[in-house]
Request: fold
Amino acid sequence: MKKISSAIGAFLQTPVGVILTTTVIWHVAVWAVGIKYSYSYTYVVSLVLLGVDIFVAFYLLDRLIYFFSQFVLPIQNPNYRQEIYLRVKNFETGSRGPALFVKNGRVIMHEGEADKRGPGLIVLDTASALVLRTDTEIKDTAGPGVKFTKGNEYIAGSVDLRSQWQYIDPRTGEQQTNGLTRDGFDVSPVISIKFSIKRPVKKTPTEGGVISQYGYDADAVRNAVTREAVQLGAAENGQARMEWNQLPAHLVVNVWREYVRKFRLGDLLTSSGASGLQIIETMINKRVKQESVEALDDTGSQTGEWIKSREFAHLQSRGLEITDMRIHNVIFDDDTEKQIVEQWSATWLNSARKEENFLKEKESLIGMASRDEASKSFAKLVSRQFGGKPTMPQENPFKTLQLLIQPLREFIITQSGSVGVEAELRKLDDIWKWLLENSAEAHDAQGGD
Reply:
């Protein structure tokens, strides 16, 4: 009973239900007030008016749907007006397809939306792109904006157009970067990689009329989603399909292992000139960014021979590009780390002792030079009274001492205002008084003679 009531209520909300209900109410009202018409005339007119009402109602509904559907989505392409009209018109029917939103390369949908089959639509933000397919073939590529799908189309894969950063830390266990050096040591670096879907030289509008700030290359997106790379030994059957955002790390780690075996452990960590790690980092960046690179021999030296970069070719074929790669701290096994620490400790101790001896010697030389300079300055200062003109020898030695002490006393008073100098000034004053007294006694003694 509840289902029947719901069905009747839904029917009465349709244009036909509203018109039929209005017609029935009108005839009931006419019959109730006792208005008499010819039955044949009444039925013919009522049927004609009912048909006209239904036609007008459906026509107005159709035109209103067409008008208001233009404001449902930010449509930039005029050809999309009819498409959005058809999607809105069929929204309440079971024949409609999925309505999806893609944000930063991730498909967002309501539960069960992807299972719908029929004409649908997809809204992509400026950082997203995708590839459509049917059960038998790859169809179209869609960039930022609005994309209308056909009844048999669905998403084969989506990508994020923004630059991606991937950190490979062997301590997390997600991916190992270990490689053997030429002298047999196992080393594992922490690697960071910046990559993205290949971007066009010039940014152009997509089919939906949107210009993405990240750039959109339809061929690159198609290649990233549809072309398959296989990682050997990654599953029980010996291989596994690799997603587009896993390929850069896979290539970089393999090149790292190729180059690290050309260097000894000591060459990787040398502090004189470019270390082995710096050389490897430079060569990996060239291998993923350039079509050709200069080869290295088995000892890590340049041979002068230029070879094709397989890694660059793989990235180009998959629609990807690596813009930066960095090697961070290197992790060793416990035995290797202990050995390196012992070597560094011995080297550090010898260097510290040499530095200590050098500093002591330098301190001694600076002290001697300072004392010599101080002696010269003191001699110039106290002999100021005797400079510039010839003088006769003083018969009174106390007078000579007064002439030596006077400029020193004046210099201390005029050049220094610190409290600690007061004691020295008092000592000079005491000496000065003593000299005056002895100078007067000496003068009297000489007069008496």
Observations:
- Residues 2-69 form one domain.
- The chain has a mean pLDDT of 78.
- The chain has four domains: 2-69, 93-160, 164-332, 383-448.
